[in-house]
Write a structure and sequence with these properties.
The protein is α+β, with helices and mostly antiparallel strands. The chain is built from 2 helices and 6 strands, in the order βααβββββ.
Length: about 140
Amino acid sequence: MRFSSIGAQVVTLFCLHAPSADEIREFIAQQRLSVFSYSEVGASANELPYHYNVDRNRILLGNGEATWHRAVEAIRGWQMFSMPWIRLYWPTTSIQAGRDVAVLVHHFGFCSLNAARIVYVVDEGGPIARFGFAIYSMRPLLAIR
């Protein structure tokens, strides 16, 4: 399969059938030169611009070090993408800034393959440990298959 667009990399692909593993690898490989879909890249690490709609949710997973380690491993394993209609390519991607992934979404009657990049990682020890990362979508230039 050949992806094409005018003047930039294809970062969203709409298709009637899910692309093959080789097509997804090619799609991800093309993202190296892609740009983000907005200018405030990394802003979620600090004070957000005033026009952002902030949606923060918290839930108590449990207590103790074992719970913490399970939660970190779930994030490292991309478990937040474990939903019946979504598939992450590839869940073995290491959590490092600059790594590109693709998210395949099954809609009603078609699929979309969307490019995203890890922008920053939070991995802090101490009395209040924190772990996570920010993944930002790439500019939505489209190809339809």
